[in-house]
Design a protein that fits this description.
Layout lengths: L6 H10 L10 H7 L13 H23 L4 E4 L4 H11 L7 E7 L4 H13 L2 E6 L7 H8 L9 H6 L11 E4 L3 H5 L11 H11 L28 H19 L5 E4 L4 H8 L3 H4 L3 H10 L20 H20 L16 H7 L1 H17 L7 H10 L5 H16 L2
Parallel strand pairs: 1-2, 1-4, 2-3, 4-5
Helix pairs in contact: 3-11, 3-13, 6-18, 9-10, 15-16, 16-18
């Protein structure tokens, strides 16, 4: 049996939504072991040449994957974003449509759900649609899911994502876009933190899962020293890759016990992307041009990244769409009888409303919260009051409720 959680681990989980571990790694040495060589002098070649080089690397990666899989069927989780679409477009060049199965999760009206199926239809491949509003919430299912993790982690959205794996055989191969966004520069900041201390402090300040002042960030659980030279990879990205992605998102996306293939973790792609100068990675500028060059048919379609517009839409139009969406989101909160339907950017379900209205989830949540309250582990939170205020609509306590439920289920797996 696993040892009980320490107070430090519980409080860190209630702050970050996962438990960081401070074990130091030498990032540059680790990458070198996989044949990845990062340079202080970045690749400042002509833009057109870099676009072609990036497209050729992607094509080579997809060719190799197809060759290794032979006549096996692959499953591509297909959202409204860029990475999964790039994988689908790339694999179609090297594998017959009959060997490609896509799966899309979400709720009707959300961009992921709607655009994902549009892309599958354009590609002419089979698409399994999973409407998350129809998913049943059962204690035993959530307990089984929680047993996949060694440390507490925010389970609720992860459980919904895991529905992808429920409809396919255990020997299926899942092609994941994991790390595609951050490697291409989605987290490359214009103003980076110049010291490790500042980078750690900045991360801790902005990584508060519940945005509550109740819990402390426990910086001691974060690495005390840089994992690579700042000129090789910025301090901010080191923290993002080696802490948040490693301990939070990777366990949820690359679920234990499944066959995962990670196209964007190919050494050629990592080396190419991380050796680019900042101006080519910020806002994923070069990546977007590579995708338009390599797969123009697929990237002439709407994207969730562009609020339902295309990659070629003017920046002002994308900004306008984002502002309009934000206004509608506020409208849904205060005038639901006028602004109906889900928020287009919603990834999974509206947990705020579901905790109040979806009977099976509401019952599961209430039982879990009161079980946790009876343990007396969370002394700074009046759990019954948090639940009552959320039910009455006095406040939106969704993130806190989700973490408290997750913690209770994790504890149940250890008892």
């Amino acid at each position: 049996m696993q040892p009980p959680l320490t107070d430090e681990q519980i409080n860190a989980f209630m702050y970050y939504g996962f438990v960081p571990r401070p074990k130091q790694i030498h990032l540059q040495r680790l990458l070198t072991r996989y044949g990845i060589h990062l340079q202080e002098t970045k690749n400042n070649g002509p833009l057109d040449q870099l676009i072609k080089e990036g497209a050729e690397i992607l094509d080579c990666i997809f060719h190799d994957i197809a060759g290794k899989l032979g006549n096996k069927t692959i499953v591509i989780p297909l959202s409204g974003g860029m990475d999964s679409r790039a994988i689908l477009a790339g694999m179609l060049k090297h594998m017959p449509k009959s060997q490609i199965q896509t799966v899309t999760v979400g709720i009707p009206g959300a961009l992921d759900y709607e655009i994902g199926q549009q892309v599958a239809k354009r590609a002419g491949v089979s698409n399994k649609l999973i409407n998350l509003d129809k998913i049943s919430w059962r204690e035993q299912d959530l307990l089984t899911y929680a047993r996949n993790f060694q440390y507490p982690i925010a389970l609720m959205e992860g459980y919904l994502y895991s529905q992808i794996f429920c409809y396919f055989n255990d020997d299926s191969f899942f092609l994941s876009g994991f790390e595609g966004d951050p490697l291409s520069g989605s987290k490359a900041k214009k103003e980076e933190n110049e010291t490790w201390e500042k980078a750690i402090t900045y991360y801790a300040k902005h990584a508060n899962y519940t945005e509550s002042i109740i819990f402390q960030p426990y910086i001691d659980l974060l690495p005390h020293e840089p994992m690579a030279d700042r000129n090789i990879i910025t301090f901010d990205e080191q923290i993002y890759f080696c802490i948040r992605r490693r301990f939070f998102q990777k366990p949820l996306v690359l679920l234990k016990g499944k066959n995962h293939i990670n196209a964007f973790l190919d050494p050629q792609w990592i080396e190419f992307m991380l050796n680019l100068p900042k101006r080519y990675r910020q806002d994923q500028m070069l990546y977007k041009k590579i995708l338009l060059h390599a797969y123009p048919e697929f990237f002439s379609m709407p994207l969730k990244n562009c609020s339902g517009l295309t990659l070629t839409a003017p920046a002002w139009m994308v900004l306008y769409k984002k502002i309009a969406t934000k206004i509608m989101d506020i409208g849904r909160k205060f005038y639901p009888f006028i602004f109906s339907g889900p928020l287009p950017s919603l990834n999974y379900i509206n947990f705020e409303q579901s905790y109040r209205r979806k009977e099976d989830l509401k019952a599961l949540a209430q039982t879990s919260l009161f079980d946790l309250h009876s343990r007396g582990l969370i002394k700074d939170v009046d759990i019954p009051k948090v639940w009552q205020e959320h039910q009455s609509g006095m406040s939106n306590n969704t993130p806190l409720i989700s973490l408290l439920i997750s913690l209770e289920y994790f504890i149940k797996t250890r008892t």
